[in-house]
Write a structure and sequence with these properties.
328 residues, Deoxyribonuclease I, Chain A, 6-stranded mixed sheet
Length: 328
């Protein structure tokens, strides 16, 4: 009988994780060393086999973090995306995990691919130009960051025919609309979500329904069962997809992955980060190893959710890590 392969996966927005100057001015503040050390301690405590991160300040930052703070225990996978802030998606995969189980990683990026989306004013201008016999001015936008795809194979599967796991990691368009063309970024986020859904469908069609295909990262909106923003409807046209928090019936008050500030400078908690998987994979989740990690004191005391700007600013990130344990 083939032994089951257990893996622990962490998904986390590290909030402006620049360890080196990025040449982007105010958009690229260097992460305070004390926060970097806390992040490293959390990762060592959880000991994930696979980490997916968003808001990484480039490959140099992630590689340096791995080498100097994690004893070079991970392989680094990061491809440059489209962010004008220099924030990237990246993976760390445990070297011990890969060698022990004789595994191999394929890492794919989608940043250069069009997503078949124009803003309404761009569509209008294109139609006017086309009617007048002129060349089109606007071409489809791309993802605002990237869709970072990780495929995990047995090393002997040299033709890459049967992955053990596929992860589709995203950081969808934020709710910022500095140009005043897309209120709360909804249209762009919906288009990016549609592209994610299309990639999921292609992978499922190619590799079959039994493959664990995980959609994770910062979705910049709510898509859990209790409240679902309409721009995510394309994902849930696949009725088999469900967030791990809903699959495991976690109490909604525990499902906070982001701490924001309202107009009165009061903090609030919300879930913006998700770990979606097909319903036929729910039985492979080990509930005791799944949840929303909470920051702790050096003595191990769990800090409550911050109630003011000072407490929020002291957090190593404004997002909490998601952790799942999965049997492949």
């Amino acid at each position: 009988m083939e032994l089951q392969l257990k893996t622990t996966i962490l998904s986390w927005n590290l909030e402006n994780f620049y360890l080196f100057p990025a040449g982007l001015g105010a958009y690229a503040p260097i992460k305070p060393p004390e926060k970097v050390k806390v992040i490293a301690t959390i990762i060592k405590t959880i000991a994930p086999d696979i980490c997916f991160f968003t808001e990484v300040g480039g490959e140099n930052s992630l590689s340096h973090f791995n080498e100097e703070f994690l004893e070079n225990g991970y392989h680094v996978f990061l491809k440059k995306g489209n962010s004008n802030r220099g924030i990237e998606n990246g993976y760390l995969v445990s070297k011990e995990f890969l060698s022990t189980h004789n595994l191999f990683i394929e890492h794919l990026g989608h940043a250069r691919k069009p997503i078949n989306f124009l803003y309404p004013h761009e569509e209008t201008e294109n139609k006017r130009l086309l009617k007048g016999g002129y060349k089109l001015k606007h071409r489809s936008h791309r993802l605002s960051r990237d869709l970072s795809e990780l495929q995990l194979f047995k090393a002997e599967d040299t033709h890459r025919q049967k992955p053990l796991l596929i992860m589709l990691g995203v950081h969808l368009k934020s709710k910022l609309d500095k140009d005043g063309i897309d209120w709360q970024g909804t249209k762009r986020r919906q288009a990016e979500c549609r592209y994610l859904s299309e990639v999921y469908t292609k992978r499922k069609k190619r590799f079959g329904d039994e493959l664990p295909i995980i959609l994770t990262g910062d979705f910049n909106g709510e898509l859990h069962a209790n409240k679902r923003d309409p721009e995510f409807r394309d994902i849930f046209s696949h009725s088999e997809l469900i967030d791990f928090s809903d699959a495991l019936s976690l109490p909604r008050e525990e499902c906070v992955s982001f701490v924001g500030m309202d107009k009165d400078k009061k903090s609030f908690g919300i879930q913006l980060d998700y770990f979606l998987l097909p319903k036929n994979q729910i039985s492979k989740l080990k509930k005791a190893g799944c949840g929303f990690y909470r920051f702790r004191s050096p003595q191990g005391t769990i800090y409550p959710l911050p109630q003011n700007p000072g407490a929020r600013h002291s957090m190593p990130s404004d997002h909490y890590p998601l952790v799942v344990e999965l049997i492949l």
